[in-house]
């Protein structure tokens, strides 16, 4: 008797869970579907789920229009480089904080965290003006710098919480073997921290790819990544729903794959390791 | 060539003084064991010598070189850690050869030396494995291999056997001493296990609360402990320490007599007591005797038919083997 | 404890990160404060005169500021409520032994990885569009008039769009926390005769309190700075109906080109962020320290 009600319970909860999950996923699904429709069918007053003329013309149109690809390349370059920069700055800093703790360590960590808590609006005007003055507006370099520093606190926290768990004796052994601090970090610390560095890399890449605030404000065309490109669909003329769908799918696909595979690391990173 | 001289070392951690004005000279080639209870500062002392911690005051000299301010990587010492601290991402071969690689030796030279060290430690078959594939004893040998491959000025051992099971520990004790004698390299060995100290050391440093209490050969420490602390710490089972009547009779505040120097007498001449516990160890039997005001005394009985629990006995100590200690706990020489 | 040698090296290695952060957050913030005391129009870059407290006066007496503040707070609180009230049950559901559990979880988490601009536009055109959007089709099919979201209820539209994206985040956090919940406690409660609701209230909820704190903390930080979605859908309008403090600063600086006023509003926004963080998030952060 218990077995039966147990099975019923599982079926019931499965249905409910899948219903909610599907509901949540639906907008993405709908976008995917629309991207394969013709423009006319996309705006049809009776939307169709499966029976429509499947076509790849939207993808072709978006890819050949000439502005998707440059923006995609910008996204890749900006996300990649800003992530590498954030990691390069964070590794030595996280080592210092984890291996040579002082009375100030805790305050430094909290201060780093607080820079992330400050709304970026607080520095929008000066950054904009400084970039204008230095000719950094609408440049990849400018965007890389600001995105890297936006993500720095998170990357630093992730690496710090991991480094703190590493047994000091292993690094002391390296010191006894004659390693300088740089050798200690490069030859011993980093190889053993690859999982954490990979997680930090992925998270930073994800956040950089989806970054909208700075990219919308500091770039318009040349250096603009996909987030800005999509924004241009805000109010164009004519029929564009299907193309928007195709463009959207193309814009989110890479990072979707990344995020999908690395959920657990992302949770750790986003919550600064507070939730395991 | 491996003489270590510590002068007036001082070290505090926070508000606690861990090492108090410590002076020690370790002769070249000696196997010196530093022993003491938890918190006596022995690990800190080792780390100070290694350079992993800074001294607050005093100096450390290796041969005639003052290394007090030299970083650990440049002191020419090797250390074997309690947890072995192997590099998990490197093979055994790379672990052992790491220091040589850092020093810029040629690959040929590295291979030669690594294989020689592996041979000595029976690790030749394991050279291509990673630490996680090894047992505790094997990992420990890799740690030792890593230390000996460089021919350092001295070895530092931080309780290296404490993570091994009992049988392995006994075996490794002999191996370590044999190795050290073969290489002739000064060794400083820290442990809380006084058996290791007694069986391995050329000289023992007994440390308590950051100060050296006695520094001598194991036999001398056993036969003439300098204080009641040393008397009670070295030797298993512990020496019987008695205050009160018997002590005063012999002009001392405390007297000490080892279990093997107390015989079971007859009649009224000895200290009376009742057998409380009988410990059969096979070759020896130790009787724990409740001697009333004198406390619980341990007596070694070598007979085949030791008394049973509850028997009334009379304990007769060998007078020439009674140690006398004054009010401060120091040995009164005869 | 590290030696002096290690500590010196440590300080050197810490410097690049700290200096970079200083350059990009502290120094510009000082500039913002400086600008807020100036008459500074971006159209006339040369003419910068000292304005004293005029900017603040202008800004604080402008009803637009207070509407933006209200919008900001409304956005944050509604989204917090939706994501937490929705996230907990959903996480509980996903924690059950269901068919294809891992896939269901991945599917449910997906919205969080969507770019905000994509998110906003997909909702604006494909779903919420009063003429050809899916929602209007559903409304018509049910015999009701479709809502013109972005004209009549822009703030509500934004709440829907952004809550949709953050609900998976909250769910993921709660799910992770639930997985560390020892089932023994719940079983003991059941043995004691507790109903599922009582079990939830007395065992599950306290265990989740820490992750609720985390969700509040993190969402507050990010939600106060909502920008891209507004930029791409309503442009803050109609009027100021969907303008939050962040967007107000933007429009003041880069649409009206009044850097002085924008800076004053920005400082106000930073102040509000601190207050809200202090009220909502710091007690939560304090719980984290344990």
Which percent range describes the beta-strand content of chain B? 25-35%
Largest sheet of chain A: none
Number of helices of chain A: 14
Pattern of helices and strands of chain B: EEEHEEEHHHEHEHEEHHEHEEEEEEE
- Strand/helix succession of chain A: HHHHHHHHHHHHHH
Shape of chain B: globular
Give the helix level of chain B as a range of percent: 25-40%
Name of the CATH first level of the largest domain in chain B: Alpha Beta
Question: Main beta sheet of chain B, described?
Answer: 6 strands, mixed
CATH topology of the largest domain in chain B: Rossmann fold
The neighbouring-strand order within the major sheet of chain B is 6-7-8-3-9-10
CATH architecture of the domain at 78-231 and 252-270 in chain A: Orthogonal Bundle
Radius of gyration of chain B: 24 Å
Strand percent estimate of chain A: under 5%
pLDDT averaged over residues of chain A: 83
**Unreliable runs of chain B:** none
Features:
heterotrimer, A: 276 residues, MetI-like fold, C: 290 residues, two-stranded antiparallel sheet, 74% helix
What does it look like?
- The complex is a heterotrimer of chains A (276), B (334) and C (290).
- In chain A, α1 crosses α13 (241-261).
- The longest helix of chain A is centred in the N-terminal third of the chain and has 34 residues, at 2-35.
- Chain A has 276 residues and is an all-alpha fold.
- The two termini of chain A are 38 Å apart.
- Chain A has 14 helices and no strands.
- Chain A has a domain at 78-231 and 252-270: MetI-like fold (Orthogonal Bundle).
- Chain B is an alpha+beta fold.
- Chain B has nine helices and 18 strands.
- Chain B has helices at residues 42-50, 92-102, 107-120, 136-148, 166-183, 194-200, 218-223, 228-233, 245-249; strands at 4-13, 16-26, 31-35, 57-62, 65-66, 77-80, 154-158, 186-191, 203-208, 211-216, 240-243, 254-257, 262-265, 271-280, 285-290, 296-301, 312-317, 323-325.
- In chain B, the strands form four sheets. A six-stranded mixed β-sheet of chain B has the order 6-7-8-3-9-10, with helices on both faces. Chain B has a five-stranded antiparallel β-sheet with strand order 13-17-14-15-16, with no helix packed on it. A four-stranded antiparallel β-sheet of chain B has the order 2-1-4-5, with helices on one face.
- Chain B is globular, with a radius of gyration of 24 Å.
- The two termini of chain B are 39 Å apart.
- In chain B, 42% of the residues are buried.
- Chain C has 290 residues and is mainly alpha-helical.
- Chain C has one domain (37-267): MetI-like fold (Orthogonal Bundle), CATH 1.10.3720.
- Chain C has a two-stranded antiparallel sheet.
- In chain C, a hairpin with a 7-residue loop joins β1 (38-40) and β2 (48-50).
- Chain C is globular and about 75 Å long.
- The model of chain C has no long low-confidence stretch (mean pLDDT 82).
- Chains A and C meet through α1, α4, α5, α6 and α7 of A and α1, α3, α4, α5 and α8 of C.
């Amino acid at each position: 008797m218990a077995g039966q009600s147990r099975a019923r319970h599982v079926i019931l909860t499965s249905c409910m869970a899948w219903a909610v999950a599907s509901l949540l996923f639906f907008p993405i699904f709908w976008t995917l579907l629309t991207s394969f429709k013709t423009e006319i069918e996309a705006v049809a007053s009776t939307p169709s789920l499966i029976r429509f003329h499947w076509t790849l013309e939207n993808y072709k149109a978006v890819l050949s229009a000439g502005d998707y690809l440059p923006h995609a390349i910008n996204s890749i370059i900006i996300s990649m480089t800003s992530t590498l920069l954030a990691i390069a700055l964070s590794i030595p800093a996280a080592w210092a904080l984890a291996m040579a703790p002082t009375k100030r360590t805790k305050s430094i960590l909290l201060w780093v965290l607080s820079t992330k808590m400050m709304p970026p609006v607080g520095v929008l005007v000066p950054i904009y003006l400084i970039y204008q003055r230095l000719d950094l507006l609408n440049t990849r370099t400018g965007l890389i710098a600001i995105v890297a520093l936006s993500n720095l606190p998170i990357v630093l926290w992730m690496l710090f919480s991991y480094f703190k768990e590493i047994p000091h004796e292993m690094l002391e052994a390296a010191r006894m073997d004659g390693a300088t601090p740089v050798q200690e970090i490069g030859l011993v610390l980093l190889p053993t921290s690859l999982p954490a560095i990979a997680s930090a890399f992925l998270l930073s890449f994800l956040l950089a790819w989806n970054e909208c605030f700075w990219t919308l404000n500091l770039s318009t065309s040349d250096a603009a990544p996909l987030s800005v490109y999509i924004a241009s669909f805000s109010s164009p003329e004519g029929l564009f729903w299907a193309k928007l769908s195709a463009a959207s799918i193309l814009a989110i696909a890479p990072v979707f794959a990344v995020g999908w595979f690395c959920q657990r690391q992302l949770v750790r990173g986003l919550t600064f390791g507070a939730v395991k | 060539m491996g003489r270590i001289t510590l002068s007036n070392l001082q070290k505090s951690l926070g508000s606690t003084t861990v090492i108090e004005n410590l002076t020690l000279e370790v002769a070249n080639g000696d196997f010196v064991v530093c022993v003491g209870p938890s918190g006596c500062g022995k690990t800190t002392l080792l780390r100070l010598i290694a350079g992993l911690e800074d001294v607050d005051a005093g100096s450390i000299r290796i041969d005639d070189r003052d290394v007090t301010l030299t970083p650990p990587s440049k002191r020419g010492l090797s250390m074997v850690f309690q947890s072995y601290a192997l590099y998990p991402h490197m093979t055994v071969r790379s672990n052992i050869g790491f220091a040589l690689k850092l020093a810029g030796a040629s690959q040929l030279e590295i291979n030669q030396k690594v294989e020689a060290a592996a041979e000595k430690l029976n690790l030749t078959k394991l050279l291509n494995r990673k630490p996680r594939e090894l047992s505790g004893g094997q990992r420990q040998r890799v740690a030792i291999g890593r230390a000996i491959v460089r021919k350092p000025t001295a070895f530092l051992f931080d309780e290296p056997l404490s993570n091994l099971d009992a049988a392995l520990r006994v075996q490794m004790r002999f191996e370590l001493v044999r190795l050290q004698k073969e290489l002739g390299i000064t060794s400083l060995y820290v442990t809380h296990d006084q058996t290791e100290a007694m069986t391995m050391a050329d000289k023992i440093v007994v440390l308590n609360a950051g100060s050296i209490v006695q520094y001598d050969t194991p036999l001398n420490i056993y036969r003439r402990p300098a204080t009641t602390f040393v008397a009670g710490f070295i030797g298993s089972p512990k020496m019987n320490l008695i205050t009160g009547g018997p002590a005063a009779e012999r002009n001392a505040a405390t007297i000490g007599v080892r279990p093997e120097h107390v015989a079971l007498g007859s009649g009224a001449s000895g200290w009376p007591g009742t057998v409380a516990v009988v410990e059969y160890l096979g070759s020896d039997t130790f009787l724990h005797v409740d001697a009333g005001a004198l406390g619980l005394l341990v007596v070694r009985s070598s007979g085949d038919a030791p008394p049973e629990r509850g028997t009334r006995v009379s304990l007769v100590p060998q007078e020439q083997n009674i140690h006398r200690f004054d009010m401060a706990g120091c040995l009164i020489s005869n | 404890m590290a030696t002096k040698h290690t500590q010196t090296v440590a300080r050197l290695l810490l410097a690049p990160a700290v200096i970079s952060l200083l350059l990009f957050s502290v120094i510009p913030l000082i500039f913002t404060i400086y600008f807020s005391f100036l008459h500074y129009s971006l159209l006339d870059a040369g003419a910068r005169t000292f304005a004293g407290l005029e900017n603040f006066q202008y800004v604080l007496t402008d009803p637009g500021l207070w509407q933006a503040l209200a919008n900001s707070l409304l956005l944050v609180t509604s989204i917090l409520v939706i994501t937490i009230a929705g996230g907990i049950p959903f996480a509980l559901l996903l924690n059950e032994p269901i068919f294809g559990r891992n896939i269901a979880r991945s599917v449910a988490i997906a919205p969080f990885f969507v770019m905000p601009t994509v998110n906003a536009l997909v909702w604006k055109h494909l779903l919420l569009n009063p003429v050809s959007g899916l929602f209007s089709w559903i409304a018509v099919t049910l015999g009701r008039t479709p809502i013109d979201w972005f004209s009549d209820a822009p703030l509500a539209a934004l709440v829907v769009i952004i809550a949709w994206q953050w609900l998976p985040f909250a769910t993921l956090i709660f799910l992770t926390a639930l997985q560390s919940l020892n089932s023994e406690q719940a079983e003991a409660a059941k043995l004691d005769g507790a109903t599922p609701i009582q079990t939830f209230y007395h065992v599950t909820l306290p265990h989740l309190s820490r992750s609720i704190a985390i969700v509040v903390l993190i969402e507050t930080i990010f939600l106060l700075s909502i920008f891209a979605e507004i930029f791409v859908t309503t442009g803050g309008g109609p009027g100021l109906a969907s303008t939050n403090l962040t967007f107000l600063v933007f429009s003041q600086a880069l649409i009206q080109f009044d850097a002085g006023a924008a800076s004053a509003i920005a400082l106000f926004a930073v102040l509000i962020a601190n207050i809200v963080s202090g009220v909502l998030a710091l007690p939560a952060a304090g719980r984290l320290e344990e």
